[in-house]
Automatic annotation (TrEMBL):
InterPro entries: GSP17M-like_dom. It comes from the Bacteria. The chain crosses the membrane at residues 76-98, 104-128. This is General stress protein 17M-like domain-containing protein. The keyword Transmembrane helix applies. Residues 1-11 have a biased composition (Polar residues). Keywords: Membrane, Transmembrane, Transmembrane helix. Residues 14-24 have a biased composition (Pro residues). Residues 28-102 form the General stress protein 17M-like domain. Residues 1-24 are annotated as: Disordered. The keyword Ion transport does not apply.
Length: 179
């Protein structure tokens, strides 16, 4: 996967390098899902099409937040303890590696875990308590698009459109996953 900050317009005279640039090119296909757009570009690549001239553009962007569960004090403290324990293991291992006493690795790890659990629970409790019930749920956020357009530089757009038309005419399940 390439960076969203790279693009064909980044080397224009007078423009600072690595700034995001609007996409350019002619539309050669439009798809409901990113997976379908990827499949179309993969199809072009399999046919020796110059895919470096192709851009997938997400249109009508929206942020989707999916609620995954209700937050309770038990869940908050448990999650804080677990993340604190992992951090404590990490710190304990580092301390045991640099300990002057050879073979004494269990003590620093145990101290790290106990201290990590305590601090993890404290920080989680403070964070949850300060919200005062305004956000009593867990969620996961995602940026999605309403559709995904495949753009191509004008010199290859006609061939790209023709190839994608062939892909669209294939029956579903014909080896490419079927669009």
């Amino acid at each position: 996967m390439t960076s969203s900050f790279s693009g064909q317009g980044q080397n224009r005279p007078g423009m600072p390098p690595r700034l995001p640039t609007p996409p350019s090119g002619w539309p050669i296909g439009s798809y409901a899902t990113y997976e379908e757009a990827q499949r179309a570009v993969d199809f072009l690549a399999d046919d020796d099409f110059p895919v470096q001239e192709v851009t997938i553009v997400g249109v009508d962007l929206m942020m989707v937040e999916r609620v995954t569960g209700k937050l309770t004090w038990g869940r908050v403290l448990g999650t804080g303890a677990a993340s604190g324990a992992w951090f404590g293991v990490f710190v304990g291992v580092l301390l045991s590696l640099f300990s002057p006493t050879t073979g004494a690795w269990a003590g620093p790890i145990l101290v790290g875990v106990v201290t990590g659990v305590a601090f993890g629970m404290i920080f989680a409790a403070v964070g949850y308590g300060s919200s005062r019930g305004r956000r009593d749920f867990q969620s996961a956020s995602q940026l999605v698009a309403g559709r995904y357009d495949v753009l191509c530089q004008p010199r290859s757009a006609e061939r790209g459109r023709d190839l994608l038309a062939k892909l669209a005419m294939r029956p579903a399940g014909s080896g490419d996953g079927g669009l």
